[in-house]
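Field: COMPLEX_INPUT
Field: COMPONENT_COUNT = two
Field: RESIDUE_TOTAL = 441
Field: MODE = joint
Values follow.
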Amino acid sequence: MIMMCLAIPAKIISVKEDEAQVDFGKGVLREVNVTLVSPQVGDYVLVHAGYAIQVLSEKEALETIRLWNEILEAEAKIQQK
Amino acid sequence: MVEKLRFRDPDLAKRVAEKIHKIAPKEGTVKICHVCGTHEWTITHYGIRSLLPENIEVIAGPGCPVCIVPASEIDETVQLALKGVAITCFGDVLRVPGSKMSPLDAKAEGADVRVVYSVADAVKMAEKEPEKDFAFFAVGFETTAPSTAVEIINKPPENLSFLVSHRVIPPAMKLLVEMKDLSLNGFIAPGHVSTIIGLKPYELFPKHYKMPVVVAGFEPIDVLFGVYMILKQLSENKPQLENEYVRAVHWEGNTRAQEIMQKVFGTVDGNWRGLGTIPFSKLELNEDFTSYDAHLKHDVKVEKGVDIQKGCRCHLIVIGKIRPTECPLFMKACTPHKPVGACMVSTEGTCRIWAKTQTC
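Field: COMPLEX_OUTPUT
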């Protein structure tokens, strides 16, 4: 059953005009509509109710983790001093 | 990509929780409101509340788009179904109570009500059966509305019309901020809605209401960092708009989706179940597309319905004023198996999430 605001990341396998085949992981493949984004093969997209709504940036995902650690480590350093 | 990332690292979560404890004020209550059913799921499922200091409350606002559809719009769907129009809808909507019947009750009476995964499937169904009249019940916030707009702009077959029940979130957040007795101290803004609308629509909250806003993702650590960032803003007395979910949300949002939505929809005042009328919060088809309006095509209009059944506390649940466990019907007369209120129906409804987590 679909959750209304849930969007699931999937990897673009192939693109043909407004339709793309995506992999939700573990071989779960599905056609989704990509009118709202312009993904390349290999990109990760957020899929909501059969539509890709945004391209996920791997660089920014890694950046998030780096920032999280930076915040935590900054605090740790202050404590050590 | 997932393997490289540590969005659910328990050690990291513990460290953020420690930071939250350090920065949290020692006195008084801080009330942080989120407005997304998926955030509530993350918070409840991963036990985020148990990691927070007792005086930091995270409450669930009207973030379940199915829960806030008023009974009158369910009644219209039921009326159409009983008239012989085939209704296509998302599974979440099927059991939402109208004044007397849910779409599922109409199906039990013999009406043609079909669940679809996507509005595209509703279009395909209508194409396959050109002799039959179809109506798609379009429910959802800004995450879902663009997909309805894409199909309408592509001119679906004439035997398909739309019952547009889409709502937009920022006007509801404005209503919550202005409810003085709710006394909110900050918002965790909805991540997926924000992928579409971007950050600009939230600017007014820190600017005019001195209310911190952090757009957060849906992993447990995203939410914990969201809470931390709000507490930090409060401790420094610098309310601002921040984005924790940078991997999916950009300042401008999805401009292509915004353009398509603007072509197809305009905003009008809309009734939200349990909240009443919120100015400019409902999407309505623009003039060019009124031929797809199921209300006009099939002459159906219900002005007023019974939004809250007797004893139900959904109107207090959707604004986070009470917890599901404070409702006398919760898990007694109202269960996921036999829901009384809309909040117990959808997998994004606060009561439903709490019920499922309690019984897990």
